[in-house]
User: Fold these one by one.
Assistant:
Number 1:
Amino acid sequence: MLVNRIMRTIPNFRGQPANSSYFLHTRNGFFRTVTNNVFVRLPVLDIMVDRLRRIEESPLCDTAVVYVHHPLRTSLNLLDSMFSIGLDPKNTFVLGKHYSENEWVVQETQRLGVHYQRCSAQTVLGGFDETFSFDINSLWETVVEDLDKKINIKNLLVLDHGGYAINFMPSSIQGRMNIVGLEKTSGGLINLVRQGCIPSFPLINMANCATKKVLESPLIAEAVVEKLSPVIPVSREPTTCGVIGYGSIGKAIAEKLLSLGHRVIIYDSDSSQLQSANLRKNFVSTSDLVSLVASADLLFGCSGQDVTKSVEAFRLSPRDKTLVSCSSGDREFLTLLKLVQKNNTSGIAANPLDNVVYESDFGGKIKILRGGFPYNFDDTGESVPANEIQLTRALVFAGVIQAIDFFKNPTVVGKEGLYALDSGLQKFVVREWLKLQPEDKLKNRYQPNQLSKFEDTDWIGEHSAGIQEPINFTLETGANLKFY
Ligand SMILES: NC(=O)c1ccc[n+]([C@@H]2O[C@H](COP(=O)([O-])OP(=O)(O)OC[C@H]3O[C@@H](n4cnc5c(N)ncnc54)[C@H](O)[C@@H]3O)[C@@H](O)[C@H]2O)c1
């Protein structure tokens, strides 16, 4: 029996130094060594796991998880954390996005024993949606077939990224078990609403939580700019940059470009978003996309939507330009990509991750970097450094904890509702994360007073979209507050 438990319990990477061999180990002892130099531990996740296990040892033992993600090194930490609280790899179904896929991460994830759905090849420019929809449907087929055979699984947790898993969830699985979803991207929520796919079960809105909006966005902006440094001119030669979509990411990108000495023009389809930009004397904003395209040489797409739908602005450009996506999938410049695909009469399939050039009617060459996929992702397995992006992984884990609570809460489970990510859990995550961030980086990234707001759960709640539903757990002391 003990042997069985050891074999079935879950690999746990915690406790390894970076840049050395590390052990995959169970709670009962080490059982496998992996030699490589790319795994780092994430202390915020570690402390969350420890605190949660003081309350309940294996709360995920009767839960299956569908996890749609970027296959980056730190996603292994998130899987590890869920395994540490009872999730069985055999009940874990994972699909990654091909544009961020790192082969080592894929292989390690497979070695953990999960069901890993490989991405199929995208053969046409602008074809991400179709390819990924095909992949998610294949994943759901596996989930249904597998869970049909398992009577011990009572709950299904769907950690979605872009709304695909929830959109394509087979109706046959709904009603058979308790389901809770979590959406990580604002684009995913918009797509679910647009397609009328509001789920009939609780959905946790991690995308629009205060922590992600305020603290994560500058990290993404820096990663994009850092990865772009070979193509962003240095400030000795200021460039006119256009930022399309002045939300969390767009704001952070605009600030960063300005700090590098560039001229920045901002456009957002929601004019109210531009009001705050108008208050800053260094930003120029416009409510006319055509003017922005005409004036800017380097354009950053930060809207999560196809900003090239009104193709005229690009078709008539006489000047060369570079377009950089900072959002998700290949959506940001989709219409242009499809035009390039249509004009490709060579019969040779383009690599969807290569730079793409659209030639305008006046001979302007519009270069779309990395096939219109977000520029901060490549095949290195890292977008934002691990110590920083553990904030995001910890927010997902906070959502997992909230879902564990929801599965037991009769007022929530089985009913539709978009719930805010719990403010107490956000406060805990931020406090632990801040302890690990160097002072100078915090000062450079955030306004004075921004960080202290995260000590106030009321403020966090007011700035996190969704229904506020108090939960039963507190990680502060690792205790139950009440019982259902
Ligand atoms: N690259 C990454 O690592 C990364 C990380 C997190 C999020 N994202 C993605 O980046 C995108 C933006 O995220 P966010 O958190 O800033 O979202 P957000 O909702 O805060 O901001 C989006 C902004 O774009 C504007 N907008 C929407 N459609 C537009 C259009 N057609 N033209 C102009 N403006 C338009 C909205 O009004 C809003 O102000 C999302 O798709 C998100 O999924 C990318």
Number 2:
Amino acid sequence: MKTKCDGCGVKIQTTSPNEKGYIRSDVYLKNPDHFLCERCFHLQHYNRVADISISEKEFLANAKKIAASRALVVHIIDVFDLEGTIISNINELFPNNKIMVVANKFDLFLSSTKPNKILNYLRTYLKEQGLHAINVSLISAKSKQDVLRLLNKIYQLKDEEEVYFFGVTNVGKSTIINQIIDLVESKASPITVSNLPGTTLGLIKLALPEKTFIIDTPGIIHDFQMTKYLDKTTLNLVIPQKYVKPRVYQLNPEQTLFVGGFAVFNFVSGEKSSFVAYFANQIVIHRTKLINAVEFYIKHVDDLLLIPTETERQRLGKMIKHEFIIDGRVDISIAGLGFMSIVGQGKVEVECFEPIKVKAREALIQ
Ligand SMILES: Nc1nc2c(ncn2[C@@H]2O[C@H](COP(=O)(O)OP(=O)(O)OP(=O)(O)O)[C@@H](O)[C@H]2O)c(=O)[nH]1
Ligand SMILES: [Mg+2]
């Protein structure tokens, strides 16, 4: 008899409806070979969910298990949210494993974006983070061709039967595996996929031809990623599903750009500069005069700026300022949300909620 949910890999139980893995015993007994836990059933059928996720302890326990093997580790990251999704100590977690990095969600960029340029950028970026990978790939889980290319690479690189997909929540691990299930015409049930942090809860093993097993793992939720603090309705607006339209502003000094109610970019002083916003299309970008910015935020945080909601803002806590001196091209990224690409000169102050990582980096899109 199977004891793990097909959708998220959690060990099932029939006694505590509010704990993870719950399934009604009559539902389980009806079809004990193929079933979903209540949480996955709700996610897959009604797009609703109970708030359950894995702890750091469980995440580390999974990592330990992988580290004890010689399996290939495929570290999936989100190319749109590099700062939020790179696990920079991955080599320490897996000192004896081959590590391959896969940057997913390339479809979020304009189709004119050159993959080779992004790949070169990523290689340098990963090195700077102290991350050593035997291969770096750029894909979109939505493209069958990309996933097929990835699968071939995995077969080429792996030494053992088992291959682990590892990464923070929401980078698309399960989506890629579902695409593989489709490509190899496997009879395996599709894995649950959602915008919510912490969708996969246990290890899910997929058998592939030539004695190969891909294992999906639950992602950790970083404290410094915006998505950790948001409810489902907001997450649906904030996690881009389709390509992100770059929004371009020429800013004079003493002007401000609001990124919804999430962040405020104050262009304090300098030369007229270009600000290109790469955030989900549904997030309002609004320009005001710097002198009016505080008043504007207070007045419009719940109507024009709309998100995050008041409850989410309470969770996020107070806002703090980060100061950047710009001279040329630079991106300022907000973990879990997106980035502002700036070309110009001057002083920029970014206000954002205290727990969220706000960082300057070399421009990704040149
Ligand atoms: N645009 C775009 N969205 C993607 C892609 N891959 C995944 N997504 C979306 O990203 C969200 C998260 O996908 P999942 O596959 O559930 O992510 P995960 O890494 O398995 O997350 P956990 O199970 O929580 O660790 C979903 O809304 C997917 O539709 C992609 O290549 N492009
Ligand atoms: Mg998953």
